[in-house]
Amino acid sequence: MSRTLRVSGYVALTIQMIWGIIQSYMISPMGPGLPAVSVGGHAHFGILSILAVVTGFAIERTALSGTRRQVAVWGFIAGQWLLPATVLMEAVFPPALLTAYLWGLLLTISMALLAWGTATADESVATP
């Protein structure tokens, strides 16, 4: 499962970098301009993708297993992809922005589980 988190992070970072290249063209003098939500979505996507990679390595050193671990991993992946998508959807369907609270809650639960798993981990698990 930690591999799934890391793959999600790396794939998202690749997409985010391509997105950044496109944005660079769009804000250049020859570009057509850039909607503000695109900048916010790009920033959210980048930060959450980096955090997915880091979390993928860190989860191995926690005491999380079973359902808690699955919720931490899949909750983070869902939030990582859907929160930036919701920010982008604001441009075409503003009421969709309300779902950002749901994706934020998933990310918060994931981080809380990781914090708990780290705090309760045996030293032999917590230290490489």
Walkthrough of the structure:
Pfam families: DUF8059 (PF26248). Keywords: Membrane, Transmembrane, Transmembrane helix. InterPro entries: DUF8059. Residues 1-124 form the DUF8059 domain. The chain has 128 residues and is mainly α. The chain has one domain (2-126). 76% of the residues lie in helices and 0% in strands. The chain has helices spanning 2-27, 36-58, 66-89, 100-119, 123-126. The chain starts with a helix and ends with a helix.
What is the topology?
Elements: H1 2-27, H2 36-58, H3 66-89, H4 100-119, H5 123-126
Helix pairs in contact: 1-2, 1-3, 2-3, 3-4
Structural class comes to mainly alpha
Q: Please give the alpha-carbon distance between the first and last residues.
A: 18 Å
Poorly predicted sequence stretches spanning 5 or more consecutive residues: none
Number of domains: 1
Strand content: under 5%
Provide the residue-averaged pLDDT: 89
Rg result: 17 Å
Q: Please estimate the helix content.
A: over 70%
The biggest beta sheet is recorded as: none
Q: What is the β-strand count?
A: 0
The coarse overall form would be elongated
InterPro entries: DUF8059
Keywords: Membrane, Transmembrane, Transmembrane helix
Domain DUF8059: 1-124
Protein name: DUF8059 domain-containing protein
